[in-house]
Amino acid sequence: MPLVLIVAIGLAVVSAAFAIQNSDVVSVSFLAWEWEASLALILILTLGTGVLIGYLAGLPSVLKGHMTAKKKDRLIAELEDSLPELDPFEVLGSDDEPGDGPVRG
Predict the structure, then answer these.
(1) Looking at residue 11, what is its pLDDT?
(2) pTM (two decimals)
(3) What is the Cα Rg of the chain in Å?
(4) Where are the domains of the chain?
């Protein structure tokens, strides 16, 4: 069984036990609103809201990193395209071939 599935099943069991043990109805007041719900539901909604806020707070940094990486990839592609195609025979000389040179023995 994959580790992710085992962790997911364990988390589901712990969540169910948490919901059963915290099923008391509580009253929540926020600004002009007031509603009653189970304590487990309120805590889970609060956790979800915190996770969402954390994700949204980190999103600009992630997007900036992706944009910087794309700019650098484009710059690398432009630089690679601007390089002349090098012919190894041109570097050695017009009549020389690789391997031609003084033979040392």
Answers:
(1) 87
(2) 0.54
(3) 32
(4) 18-83
